[in-house]
Amino acid sequence: MRIGELAVRTGASPRSLRYYEQQGLLVSARTPSGQRCYGDEHVQRVALIRTFLAAGMSSRTIARLVPCMKRPTMDGARRASAVMSQERARLSSEIDSLAAAREALDHLIEVNRTFMADAADAADGSGAGGAGGAGGTG
Amino acid sequence: MRIGELAVRTGASPRSLRYYEQQGLLVSARTPSGQRCYGDEHVQRVALIRTFLAAGMSSRTIARLVPCMKRPTMDGARRASAVMSQERARLSSEIDSLAAAREALDHLIEVNRTFMADAADAADGSGAGGAGGAGGTG
DNA sequence: CTAAACGCTCACATCGATGTCAGGGGCAAG
DNA sequence: CTTGCCCCTGACATCGATGTGAGCGTTTAG
Description:
The structure is a homodimer. By secondary structure, the first copy, chain A, is mostly helical. Chain A has one domain (about 5-125): Multidrug-efflux Transporter Regulator, Chain: A, Domain 2 (Orthogonal Bundle), CATH 1.10.1660.10. In chain A, about 65% of the residues lie in helices and about 5% in strands. Chain A is built from five helices and two strands. Chain A has a two-stranded antiparallel sheet with strand order 1-2. The longest helix of chain A is centred in the last third of the chain and has 51 residues, at about 75-125. At the A-B interface, helix 3 and helix 5 of A face helix 3 and helix 5 of B. Chain A binds a DNA duplex (30 and 30 nucleotides) through helix 2.
């Protein structure tokens, strides 16, 4: 298939696919006139690339895993294994960051909810309502 | 405290702190000569900001939460609550992406390990070793 | 007073994946 | 041959947080 179809099938723009190739993440056969040709297996390949990109891996990092995605070589495999475990650690710590942010956000959400409830109570005039004052420096 | 100390205490560069202020994430008192003055509470505030930034929130997004971090107003609170739940969803989905990438990576790691084991076996000459062939298109 | 260390503002540079435009071919249908 | 759609390369633009440097004032230690 040509680049347009691969783009449709993967959700990547043709521009991105060419970029992946330029970065060494993807290899394409060419027609005599220079147009790129891909096989079905490239769909999955691109999906993997995009998964990694979406996780914030740089194309440079992914490039170092590529040798290990297609036809592993001893050299590639050994080098890749270091990168992989390192990157795995990075992913885990990033996940932790996100989780921490989500918890902080949850906290804010609750404070916010409490404040709104208190304000509603105050507007009602009935003094009974949320436990504490909503004055926080946050 | 002045900006340098806040920087040391938060791990943010003075440059970043000024940027946060410019983006409306942080407010500072000024000495008559124009130097920024902060109180202890700003340390925590900056920490929160950095937590959110590290999670990939834009300063613009964080800015919309700020009214809700200090002295909540009805307006701010109402608007913020929308942003907050939206952003919470984004965080969750991002976490999922990262987790997916980590799983994909784990898969690669195992394939890689298997390949290396097979290669070692082949070098040993004893045909018994890893179960399948290591030839994958990835 | 002087020098060092710090602070201020302004402005430009950086990185990385992607968008977009320009100028030029390839290929199929009429 | 022409029209229309796809493709090619190359170059420049984008966004956002931060680095960096210039040029100039402030505060503090000697």
